[in-house]
Write a structure and sequence with these properties.
There is one protein chain. With 352 residues, this protein is of the alpha/beta class. It has a domain of 217 residues: 3-Layer(aba) Sandwich (Rossmann fold). Helix content is 28%, strand content 17%. It has twelve helices and eleven strands. An eight-stranded mixed sheet has the order 2-1-3-4-6-5-11-7, sandwiched between helices. A three-stranded antiparallel sheet has the order 8-9-10. A hairpin with a 5-residue loop joins strand 8 and strand 9. The N and C termini lie far apart (49 Å).
Length: 352
């Protein structure tokens, strides 16, 4: 789908200053076709709200998706879009960004699309550090194909494809991204609208690959998957929002924290009785290594609060910049390329 140009002319040589865009400018004319109550609606709405603030023209923005409920996303954005094939959105986004580095490229994917058939494409796109944004909708189920277990489904979960319970150990999307050396890693929740907007905006402003996991409720096939830590009555004690430079404090009374034990394991402590914030971990998203970020991402058991926020935000040369540098160096050394000469060079032979 295409987008209209944002810089009109007034008939003279000078362009008219661009009109400030609004959320409505990023809403396409396509009927949104998700199940009523699906968390995808919220994610779509928050991204549409953030896009005007990024200062990027619609014609310079591309949303690429694979297959799944989330992958209908490009139809609903009034930008360029590509609804690709199962698991291959990162590969297609790589080609788009490498050949058109000026574009703002977004990958919209799900836990099944990205971490099953698309797992190989995902990790290699991340490790190359292209300047693209990957938003992974994690509902821990296959929704489009009607409720089979996914790579992130909980161990023991009964589904249509696992009537006796899942016996695969689930993948942790953040751990995968961190292990692949993603330079920006974050997590948010579909219903935490202001937090989700902030997270998406930070991802966009990051130079390099941005990986954002969004906990997204599938109210048809996996309803209430995250309510044990997202519901209003429990989330203060069951979740922790990590912030750069701040100690890991949580709880309705801000009376609990996370510290590092001498055996290099994390533990939750009650503040008071000689335990204060000075002994807690101070979050450092800028750390050159990802050890602490990885440990925080693995806080999954009921013994720990579930963390949301930015886990890592570091700077490293991007793939497309290094590619352009290689091309420039080669051209300066050997001159412009000649495809016909290349084809007929080296080992050639004639079949008679």
């Amino acid at each position: 789908m295409s987008a209209n140009a944002n810089i009109p002319t007034n008939g003279g040589s000078s362009p008219v200053p661009p009109v400030k865009l609004t959320r409505k400018d990023f809403v396409s004319d396509q009927e949104v076709r998700w199940c009523p109550g699906c968390g995808d609606y919220s994610i779509l709405a928050q991204i549409q709200k953030v896009m005007p603030e990024l200062g990027i023209k619609r014609e310079n923005t591309v949303f690429v998706s694979g297959i799944g409920c989330s992958s209908r996303f490009p139809y609903y954005m009034n930008t360029y879009g590509f609804h690709s094939i199962h698991g291959r959105a990162p590969a297609i986004a790589t080609g788009i960004k490498a050949s058109n580095p000026e574009l703002s490229v977004w990958v919209i994917t799900g836990d099944g699309d990205a971490l099953s058939i698309g797992g190989n494409h995902l990790i290699h796109t991340i490790r190359r550090n292209l300047d693209i944004n990957i938003i992974l909708f994690n509902n821990r189920i296959y929704g489009l194909t009607k409720g089979q277990y996914s790579p992130t489904s909980e161990f023991g979960k009964k589904t249509k494809s696992t009537p006796y319970g899942v016996i695969d150990y689930p993948l942790n999307p953040l751990s995968v991204a961190l292990a692949a050396e993603a330079t920006f890693v974050a997590r948010s929740v579909d219903t935490f609208t202001s937090h989700l907007q902030m997270t998406v905006e930070r991802a966009m402003h990051h130079k390099g690959v941005s990986f954002v996991e969004v906990y997204q409720n599938c109210n048809i096939f996996n309803d209430h998957a995250f309510e044990m830590f997202t519901e209003r009555g429990v989330r203060d004690d069951a979740m922790i929002e990590i912030e750069h430079g701040k100690p890991l404090v949580f709880g309705k009374e801000h009376n609990r924290g996370v510290r590092m034990r001498s055996d290099m394991h994390l533990e939750v402590v009650e503040l008071g009785n000689g335990v204060d914030e000075s002994g807690l971990i101070v979050h450092n998203e800028k750390a050159p290594d990802s050890y602490l970020a990885y440990m925080l991402a693995r806080m999954e058991s009921p013994d720990y609060p579930v963390p949301i926020g930015v886990f890592r935000d570091v700077t490293k040369a991007t793939y497309e910049d290094m590619l352009a540098g290689q091309i420039k160096t080669a051209t300066e050394k050997m001159g412009p390329g000649d495809l016909e000469k290349l084809i007929n060079s080296g080992d050639t032979w004639v079949i008679e």
